[in-house]
Amino acid sequence: xxxxxxxxxxxxxxxxxxxxxxxxxxxxxxxxxxxxxxxxxxxxxxxxxxxxxxxxxxxxxxxxxxxxxxxxxxxxxxxxxxxxxxxxxxxxxxxxxxxxxxxxxxxxxxxxxxxxxxxxxxxxxxxxxxxxxxxxxxxxxxxxxxxxxxxxxxxxxxxxxxxxxxxxxxxxxxxxxxxxxxxxxxxxxxxxxxxxxxxxxxxxxxxxxxxxxxxxxxxxxxxxxxxxxxxxxxxxxxxxxxxxxxxxxxxxxxxxxxxxxxxxxxxxxxxxxxxxxxxxxxxxxxxxxxxxxxxxxxxxxxxxxxxxxxxxxxxxxxxxxxxxxxxxxxxxxxxxxxxxxxxx
Length: 344
Description:
- By secondary structure, the protein is mainly beta.
- About 5% of the residues lie in helices and about 45% in strands.
- It is built from one helix and 31 strands.
- The strands form eight sheets. A four-stranded antiparallel sheet has the order 1-28-27-26, with no helix packed on it. The protein has a four-stranded antiparallel sheet with strand order 2-3-4-5, with no helix packed on it.
- Strand 24 and strand 25 (about 265-270) form a beta hairpin.
- The longest helix has 11 residues, at about 5-15.
């Protein structure tokens, strides 16, 4: 390599840092799908969660079982109740909270190495006509969301905060610890022990990126009780209540027609064409490795960033017999031989 080109590359390496990392596209993610051919139970999936040992869990067999997935094999266990398992949630101690629905809702806890035990729903009347589920907040506290919003106390009782009337049930928490719960018609915000209700849609989010909301037509940011539009649903696509946010701030939302949707900076990408069967997503979950999991009638799907990504076209033809490939502090890629250098 000539001294001139070598000096140029040294200058590139010494360039000041700048934020120039391009956003990922949904097309770049590696999708892996598991179906009944891989041993997955033949049933719609729901209530995806992950325990501290890394296992993925979900309700299976239409509520007659719950399944553990280690990334290779599925192991299904019998439910602890006489009828159906409604929903599950992992806690910070490595256990699972399990909400069954028989002639009434019943709460159970599964801990590693211990028998499954029933936990009384003291002071809680969930009602059988609407969905209900357990949820664990960032402080490790258990909540039960149903016809009422109730939080488990250290003495074993539950404190109920407010009632819900709509059929939807979603929950999210912001950075200050305020919990927002929606029934699809109203949003109840619980700050410490005070509850306030306002008209609103389904909620999702986390303490890092805050509380968001959505309906069939769009995704919104919820701040100070006001909604601001982030993205509209593409023509022929409707969002459902299943949504979450990854570590980059990208929103992953379930759709009714086109599988999962990725939303970032106002751009909406969907995974499936209209001809693919099983487009309606029943659950979306992000694990500790920032992998995105989506469940629908077609199976269990994982979306993972690849170890390497495709580069956009270089600003010229790639030099023959390149002698060096260099990524500068601005994340530009330079390729050079003894004659010339090109870069992205």
